[in-house]
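re: ur question from earlier - yeah i can do the single chain one, its not a big deal. heres the input i used so u can compare w yours
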Amino acid sequence: MGDVKLTRGIGFREDFLVDSLANWTADSGVAATTDGDIVAVTGLTATNGLSRSGLSISTSTYSEVKLRQKQTGSGGNSGLVRFTYSDASTSDHIYTTTGLLTVVPITPTAFKTVTAIKFLNSVGAPNMEFDFIFFYREELTLPAVSEPLRLTLGRTVVELPIPTREGGVLQDIGSDSARLELAGSLLATQTPNTYTANQWWNVLVELVLEGNWQWLTSDRVNYKYHIEDVTLTQEPGIANTYYPFKMRLRKVDVLSATTQTFSVTT
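and the output i got, formated as tokens:
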């Protein structure tokens, strides 16, 4: 199993839920609609796009950005997001688009305050879909995840009893939210996260208290997960060296889950 990564410290997030478009402005020729989870934007050009202003996001504190997007329709394969800063400067960030929802990391200009975000297009790709964009503090590579990653999928199957019949009738009324279990040890690390074992303990406590869904990445699972609980253990006679941990997470589906939200392609 490869590295398991979780974002941490959400400073700003747009998840494009039902009422979110009220905060965004479409330029002439640009149209945006949301299904309550993903916004579809048409007519993007190098100058006209979809923007949100009135922000105040410190890139000193929230130095990383993730954007989940895909191209729809024909055109080129380059997207563009522009950040405007409080000093009136801007930075353009070009990313590759495909026909699949893909997360791209973006690094804004350091030591600035973002006041506006604008989706444009670089070369072609005038029609796009966006799942989310969020600014966050850092991405955690969980240390020493030594046990198998367990993904549990369950369906809610109700049995309807029928008088005088041997055996009831089963009714499938949908699935539960997927559960993910991780376990390992908190050890001192140097890269990419420089933390002692004690600091890792504190980081995981803070992560639970943050109360946000986080983007989880592994070589098999890539999606939004909300931390359900974390168990931290201090072994007798061992101090400040390592702490076994277990973590349970719950998959976040705003709309009905699909194979795509499980990173399944057939």
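The domain at 142-262 is CATH 2.40.30.200 (Elongation Factor Tu (Ef-tu); domain 3). not sure if urs matches, ping me
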